[in-house]
From TrEMBL:
It comes from the Bacteria. This is SPOR domain-containing protein. The lineage of its organism: Bacteria, Pseudomonadati, Pseudomonadota, Gammaproteobacteria, Lysobacterales. Pfam families: SPOR. InterPro entries: SPOR-like_dom, SPOR-like_sf. Residues 128-195 form the SPOR domain.
Amino acid sequence: MFLRLLFVLLIAFNIAVGAWLLLGQDDTHGRSATDPGVPTLHLLSERPVAPASTAVVANPEPVAPPAPVTAPVSASTVKTTPTTRPNSYTCISIGPFATPIDMRNARGALSAQAARMRSRQEQTTQTRGWWVYLPASASREQALEQARKLTAASINDYFVVGLGGQPNTISLGLFKDPANARKRRDEVAAAGFPAQMTERTETVPEYWLDLAVVDSARFDWRSRLHNNSVGSHSTGCF
C-alpha cells in the first residue's frame, strides 16, 4: 500500500516539473512580452548616451518669424475716393389748377425735371360776386309794397325773394365788379331806399403741385406747361 502511494506521488511530481519547464520559460524560447507591432519599452538606463560634443539647450526661447517684406508704395499709386457733396434743393408750389385732370397733366410734363413731386388739394373761399339788396321786410305784403315803391321811383331790375335763407328781401342785382355794385347801391340809396352791398363767397377745391428741384438744374416750368392761369411760389421742402 505504501509503495503504491509513493509511486503516485512521483508521477504527480514529474508532471508538475514538466509543466513548469514547458510553460514558465518564455525567455528561453525567444517569445516577446508584447503584442506584435507594439514597440518595445526600454529603461532610461538602457538608452545610448549622447556624444559629448552635442550641446543641449535648456528652455529655448521661441524665435519670432521674420516680418514679411512689403514693397514701398509710391504716392502715384494711392487712389483717393472723391467726397460727394449732397445735393441742395429748391421747393416750389405750382397752381392752383382748376381740375384734377389739369394737375395730372402738369405732373406728367414736369416729372423728368423734378427730383420729388407731390399733389395736394386745398379748400379755398372764392368770391361769387357782389350783391346789392334791400333788407328783408317783416312780411310778404310789406316786401311787395316796397317793390311797388321801387317801380314808382323808376327803379327796375329787382326781385322779391320768397324762399331760401333770406325771404322778403328785395334783390337789386349780383355784380362781379365791386365798382358796378357800388354804383347800383348808390343810385337806389339816392332814391330814398336803404340799399346795401355785400360780398357773396363760396368754398371750392383747388389743386396744387409741389416740386423739389436740384439747385444746380435749370428749371423752367412755364416753358413746359403753357398755362397762364397758374402761378408758383416757394414752399418748404419735403
